[in-house]
Design brief:
mainly alpha, about 0% strand, globular
Amino acid sequence: MPLAKLIQSVRERINVRIYSSKGRVTSILRFFRVIVALAMAAMLVYVHGFPQSLIDLATYQLWIRFALLFFVVSFLVRWFFDFEPSKYLKSNVFEAGILGVILLDALFRISIGHPFIGIIFTNLTEFEIAYWRFAISQILLLLIIFVELGRFSQLLGQLKINPSHLFIASFILLIAVGTLLLMLPNMTTIAGAMPFMDALFTSVSASCVTGLIVVDTATYFTWKGQLVILVLIQLGGLNIISFASFFGAFLKGGIGLKHNLMIRDVMSFDTLSDSRSLVKRIFLFTFILEAAGAIFIYMTWDSSVVFSSVPSRIFHSVFHSVSAFNNAGFSTYTNGLFEQGVRNSYVMHFGIAGLIFLGGIGVTVLNDLFSPERLRMRMLTPWRRLETSTRLSLYTSLILIFVGAIGFAALESFNAAQYAEGGFLRMNWFEQTITSIFQSMTTRTAGFNSVDISILSVPTLLMFMVLMVIGASSGGTGGGIKTSTFAVVFLSALATIRGKKHVQIYRRTISNELVNKASSIFLFSVSVIFIGVFALTILEPQIPFLHLLFEQISAVATVGLSTGITGELSSASRIVIILSMFVGRVGVLTVAVAISRRVDTNNYKYREAHVMLG
């Protein structure tokens, strides 16, 4: 008998013998996997959040090794119990890869007495090997915890919950966790814990990719605190539901039909097939572009910008790349990109502007533009054009960038305050061009500033407010009412003026349902802005109205630009800004749907009535 058939025969006999205990064993392992994952997550928070001695770290390292060994054994047992082990490995390739690295390192340490990393990097000292092995083991443990999160996400399809409620709940959970983490002693440079209100404001601003700050990100937080902010930006920009679904897609069974439907509703995908493939593509585009952006930023810092070490330069580059792509506006410099030295990195500004643009137009547009399938299809059938939504988002964004850049350059040319050091009128034509384009792009959604916002003229501030209200594109990481919403409302008004019955663009008709939705988003957004600024004028009568209006629009549109009043706001005013940022990120229509009661039926209508308008 051939060896393969013999092994298969033996395996079938073993599976028959152990089949009765399979369910019990896998259930016990599932329970302990959850317990160990939660315990190790809590230990990670404790060790990195509070001061530790060397003895505590050594004990912690032993617990990490125990946890990693447990997950390896758990995977091997589940693999052994499966009737088709080869298929099991293929369907759990991500988890198998992580555990394979752990097993390989353990085998090297047992067989030759040295960890795997010491074999690869022979020039490292014993201390450096121990340090990097400790760091890598924590990263692997985090990945395993994320895998367990992905496994839990497979249960989302079984929840009887409205997608809008789930979307809102996911952000509340992210904000709550972020607040608690930022309050840990090791996250800040001050003695003790960060005040709750400041931590909450920072967590909301990072999770909602806004960028408004009440403390100096550069000096108030340690690198661990800045790392927490970076993670909140990434999770908030990607959407925590899609993040969990990404890891769930790599597990056996993937994500079910109901889960797919939920993702489609939450992320506004067009079809069910989109929700199955675009979750992975979101991460592919995101991490490739963020990695490329980080490399570009690393290479284009101005020579006057000094870093303490190469890892510090890498961290600053990665932080700004992630912040830019997710349109967050957070910076590791006190004055943002207007910091002395950083303001002169004009080539880097151009790269950050590119990341802002790519993140702002959204993954669905990037998929239509650059996915291999779409590129191949357009090469084989040249008459096929981009999707209507892609063309609308792309062209509207480009027009707004052009108008904003020309408007900024023209208006600030008459602003005498720009003659100050670092001012717009002290730049040459190349620097003015880059600055104008950069400010036009970042104003709509990202919130970075390469000029001093507090000295801008009133007409420029008013123009910036309009750009902030419009915001980024649908499906992008930015806020605002979205470029497509603005375009549809504008085209609808134009069609009404011209006496046309339908809204048309690119030889396509926009449905009345979409026109009504766009009008509702615009109306609700203006209402939220009005209510917020009305409350702020009551709570902050000493602050000029224009500055309050700018702050409120920046919060609702999740932009993050400020005239410098954020730190001066009272606790009550900060709550108004917090709620505005939250509503702006999850979407005014999502909040409206979540708190409203849907009608039972639409199969009736009353007779028409005439109402005078205009």
